[in-house]
Amino acid sequence: MNIHERPSADDLFGISWMLVLVGWSIAALSMIGALYLSEYLRIEPCVICWYLRLFMFPLTPVLMVGLFLFDRHVVFYALPLASAGWLISVIHLLQTSVTTPVEAASCSPIMPCSETQIMWMGFVAVPLLWVAVFSVINVLLIAAHFSRATSREYAA
Predict the structure, then answer these.
(1) Is 1 a member of any domain?
(2) Which of 69, 71, 101, 114 makes the best surface tag, with the fewest CB within 10 Å?
(3) Domain total for the chain?
(4) Hey, is 119 helix, strand or coil?
């Protein structure tokens, strides 16, 4: 099949489309959750959380457009956002879990990035949730890419 052709009926709801759909739903839920924490619970996000939002919030429309248009290259659009978000979230998690005597220079004095404001079940903080969400989305996008590559291989 040519890259510019519409996918066949067998390809429309294949495994790669479903993986991107799950990634989109996780991105949408995390966007709603971040907005819930800041707007409803009035928890002020730190500077690094704003950068994490910068990489998470565009994933929702990018993945949604890729799903509706059946764009086979949506992984290449979304994976840089998810990978950069994962890297920043790991840095944020290390900053909150490792005690450092000096605060990060990028953080505001009102809301330091090393401070944990909310903790669920005694160990789940917001930085850990960011790492988990970006990790799952990265794995789903990579799996969608490779499942598409192997399905083309076996279709011939």
Answers:
(1) no
(2) 101
(3) 1
(4) strand
